[in-house]
Specification:
Distance between the termini: 24 Å
Number of strands: 8
Number of helices: 5
CATH superfamily of the largest domain: Hypothetical protein ph0010, domain 1
Strand content: 15-25%
Structural class: alpha+beta
CATH class of the largest domain: Alpha Beta
Oligomer: single chain
InterPro entries: AMMECR1, AMMECR1_dom_sf, AMMECR1_domain, AMMECR1_N, AmmeMemoSam_A, Uncharacterised_MJ0810
Strand order of the largest sheet: 2-1-3-8
Protein name: AMMECR1 domain-containing protein
Pfam families: AMMECR1
CATH architecture of the largest domain: 2-Layer Sandwich
Helix content: 25-40%
Number of domains: 2
CATH topology of the largest domain: Glycoprotein, Type 4 Pilin
């Protein structure tokens, strides 16, 4: 999938509107996807930061709903339901930066040599446990391929070297990643 700048801006608006609405107690807003890309079922994550510090990140790996609906839902969940953080408060709304990662379908990894830092995100799965790290995590933390795999295993609540075990499934994916500052968007701004 290739997204136009207009579609990226629309998704960022959807995410901002969703977060603002749920944080202010107004519930999840309705969305009407305007283009074929935004109507296409797709996995996506919404990451919320304040001053480059993570404040919430939740997403759907599977393509269950349209991209627009997925972003609408996971934006709200990132603001209110990330168990690592308290819910976003209304006073924080003008401080947050929203980043969206639109995921490709998962692809099974046969050899760790297939994994490209900066291009691929990872998901490990073993039994009912699974962990996922977006492509930007490896770059932001300057991780090697092995460290990226270890961190993904830890995210799943598994031992760091579980990726070497035949019982562990490893998947890679790519993502289209964009954020409000890419388009100089701020709360209340009409572009």
């Amino acid at each position: 999938m290739n997204l136009t700048d207009e579609e990226k801006i629309e998704l960022l608006r959807i995410a901002r509107n969703s977060i603002t609405s749920v944080v202010n107690g107004k519930g999840l807003p309705e969305v009407e996807p305007k283009t074929e890309n935004l109507k296409t079922p797709c996995g996506a994550f919404v990451t919320i930061t304040i001053n480059d510090t993570l404040r919430g990140c939740i997403g759907y790996v599977e393509a269950i709903k349209s991209l627009a609906e997925t972003v609408n839902e996971v934006a709200a969940k990132s603001a209110l339901e990330d168990p690592r953080f308290p819910p976003v408060e209304p006073y924080e709304l003008d401080k947050i930066e929203i980043e969206i990662s639109v995921l490709s379908p998962l692809s099974s990894v046969k050899s760790v040599d297939e994994i490209k830092i900066g291009e691929h995100g990872l998901m490990v799965k073993r039994g009912w446990r699974r962990g996922l790290l977006l492509p930007q995590v490896a770059v932001e933390h300057n991780l090697t391929r092995e460290e990226f795999l270890e961190h993904t295993c830890l995210k799943a609540g598994l031992p760091p070297d579980c990726w070497k075990d035949k019982e562990t499934e490893i998947f890679k994916f790519t993502a289209i990643i964009f954020k409000e500052s890419d388009f100089k968007l701020k709360e209340g701004e009409n572009v």
